[in-house]
Amino acid sequence: MAWNLFKLVGLGDVTGLDLLFASAALVGGLLFLAWFFLLMIGGVAGGLLDGALGLDVDMGADLSFKAFTFQGIIAFVMMFGLIGLAFSRSAQSDMIALLAGTVAGGGSMWSMGKLFQVFHNIQTSGTMDINNAIGQTGTVYMRIKPAEVGQIQVNIQGAMRTLDASAEDEKLHLKTGSMVTVKDVIAGRMVVVPFSKENIEEE
């Protein structure tokens, strides 16, 4: 059935590698669109994936952009499929098509990281004094694992900011959506304590 459909649209000579590229482009493209749709309706993607699926989605302050964040994976898959398919259908060898797809995917990961870094710099620019966050109550945006850095959303000078944060007690695991109080600011990072014991997540 599938091969008949390909013949119908003039792709009767499609190969297994073409199917791989096409599937990657389709899946990556759909996930990419879904991700930005979630961002546009309120920035819920990070909390949704972190809380419901257990994925760490780094969208904030430390955007040197780690390669295996959710955004990086979908950008890689999408461009790997699109460019790989284009080279494969242009009568290039399988090796060249795979190499081109891999290079394009890697480049898209790097570009996506730079793009989010620019967005973050715009968000945090200006005269904001993050020390004004001390004593404020906020919510965990990306869960804070024991002895690791997560992110919180806190109101500073009338604006909601997403900032890196770590727990004062390095043994604590603070879940996404829980309330915390900013205790201190060290090297630009919020040091927080749980607002209540219910906010602590057991390992």
Structural overview:
By secondary structure, the protein is of the alpha+beta class. Helices cover 45% and strands 18% of the residues. The chain folds into two domains: 14-124, no CATH class; 130-195, OB fold (Dihydrolipoamide Acetyltransferase, E2P) (Beta Barrel), CATH 2.40.50. The chain is built from five helices and five strands, in the order αααααβββββ. Helix 2 runs antiparallel to helix 4 and helix 4 packs antiparallel against helix 5 (94-124).
Can you lay out the helices and strands and say which pair or pack?
Blueprint: H1 2-8, H2 16-40, H3 45-52, H4 70-89, H5 94-124, E1 137-142, E2 150-156, E3 159-167, E4 179-186, E5 189-194
Parallel strand pairs: 3-5
Antiparallel strand pairs: 1-2, 1-4, 2-3, 4-5
Helix pairs in contact: 2-4, 4-5
